Amino acid sequence: MLHVDNIEVVYSKMILVLKGMSLQVPDGKIVALLGSNGAGKSTTLKAISGLLGGDGGQVTKGKIVYEEKDITAWSPDKIVQQGVFQSMEGRRVFKHLTVEENLMAGAHSRKDRRNIKKDMERVYHYFPKLKDLNSRHAGLLSGGEQQMLAIGRGIMAKPKMLLLDEPSLGIAPLLVKEIFKNIKQINEEEGMSILVVEQNANVALSIADYGYIIEDGRSVMEAPVSELLTNQEVQEHYLGMSEEGRKNYREVKAYRKKQRWI
Amino acid sequence: MTFFLQMLVSGIVVGSIYALVALGFVLIYKASDALNLANGEFVLIGSYICLTLVTALQLPFLVALLITLGVCAVLGLMVERVVLRPLLNAPTISIIMATIGLGNLLAGLVHMVWGHQTRVYPNLFPDTPVTFGGVLITPVYLWSFIIVMLLLIVFTVFFKYSKMGVAMRAVADDLQAAASMGINVKRVFAITWAIACIVAAVGGVLLGNINGVNATMSVIGLTVLPVVILGGLDSIPGAIVGGFIIGILQSIAGGYLDPLVGGGLKEVFPFFIVILILMFKPYGLFGKGGMERV
Lengths: 262, 294
Ligand SMILES: Nc1ncnc2c1ncn2[C@@H]1O[C@H](COP(=O)(O)OP(=O)(O)OP(=O)(O)O)[C@@H](O)[C@H]1O
Ligand SMILES: [Mg+2]
Known about the structure:
Strand order of the largest sheet of chain B: 1-2
GO molecular function, one term (chain B): transmembrane transporter activity
CATH topology of the largest domain in chain A: Rossmann fold
Strand order of the largest sheet of chain A: 6-7-8-3-9-10
Distance between the termini of chain A: 39 Å
Strand content of chain A: 25-35%
Number of strands of chain B: 2
Keywords (chain B): Amino-acid transport, Cell membrane, Membrane, Transmembrane, Transmembrane helix, Transport
Strand content of chain B: under 5%
Main location (chain B): membrane
Order of helices and strands of chain A: EEEHEEHEHHHHEHEHEEHHHH
CATH superfamily of the largest domain in chain A: P-loop containing nucleotide triphosphate hydrolases
Largest sheet of chain B: 2 strands, antiparallel
Radius of gyration of chain A: 18 Å
Bound molecules: adenosine-5'-triphosphate, magnesium ion
Organism (chain B): Halobacillus dabanensis
Family (chain B): Belongs to the binding-protein-dependent transport system permease family. LivHM subfamily.
Oligomer: heterodimer
């Protein structure tokens, strides 16, 4: 059980981004975290996995508890050893390493080195395409293949909890479906808890058990997926069911990006 | 012809030492995007430490070499801890400036401890040259070459297959993503500096055995600059091939051209080559130049 309890996150000592964010991920469940651009989804994940430091961020209030341990402000390698693994936004594969070496890197914190070869086969079982590409430099893979590799690294780490940041980013709709089908399958077969951040709410909610909606640094709604799917506000804003919602987030994204620069 | 082969052989041997020292340089560059301008002083210190162990303490060479490597590994760890770690998120130029400062500090230290006259290693290798098809090779050259080749093979295997080697390359590729894999980035940096220091020291010990040791030896820190620029700053195979190329060309140019112009060409020749290469391949022979596909 992962418990994010009312955390505040500050970047560069002065930009307050999370303003009392809370969420929970029960064991073995898939939880979706939805929200518009800049709401603080990635920040939430990085706070959990201890990766804020590299961006000049810091948890200034609240705490993050995983399996009864307060892991707030632990270093990323210790958090991975606890069994919490994040696959970062934008895939972030190691471009100059081969596919296989990327998978090895994913297994870095594993103690049971002997099972690594076997687990590599499991990754290939979920993503057969990677097998044919295994000696190619990851930088040369297509975006979709890189995303499979990024998730594959997560499988190699054998975490108890996998944090996925926008696995659908920049990927064709058909492939998105397939990747999410695989995520579900991983959750069921490996019993891995999954916290998935998504812009594509439709596909995320199609596999999740529970969902949170984050706006401006705090969670504004949480409910089992069945409830979220029938909630009118969610339908309009996140599932693109009304005219307004259909305007799609691309425009919003462009607008927010512009805002960030100013 | 024998003269040419003679020059070739000595070029290969000196080139292999360049390759080794350049390897340390490239490692640091890959890990922190910064030039380590204290590399020449690492070479110097390693050479002096080993010299002291074999002369003052009369230790057998291999024992002395191993102790030197140990001491230099610790030195590398300390440098990372004290000088580099506080600069972890600092701009590259600050890191480079810090290495310049460190280089001066180490140079001063060497001067204080060992003075400035040239010291020579006792004859550790037999004097009588071996002949290979008419080419004379002194044992010290032969052994240097063997030691360097062994080390290069060990490191190549290490980087390609070992867990730590893969982790080091991952860190070089994308620091934050590497951290997200559970790789202890600080430890990787520390080990990188330790290795850089070790290879520099071995280079220093071998050069010391060939030419003797004095403070000017740290010039090799500058000579490997053309080597790594030639090979591509971020390429380990590039550093190795570049080392050999520069070593060989320098030796041959020195042998044939120096007598004509009255000497001195040997030292600047590597820089000529680099200018030429950069005109055609701005990222060096093996540099990545941004393999991108997004
Ligand atoms: N390193 C940083 N320094 C300063 N501000 C930052 C930093 N990283 C993110 N922010 C700001 O924090 C806010 C939340 O960013 P975050 O990346 O968590 O958003 P997100 O919900 O993941 O958005 P997206 O859907 O676009 O990925 C944004 O306003 C962003 O500008
Ligand atoms: Mg994000």
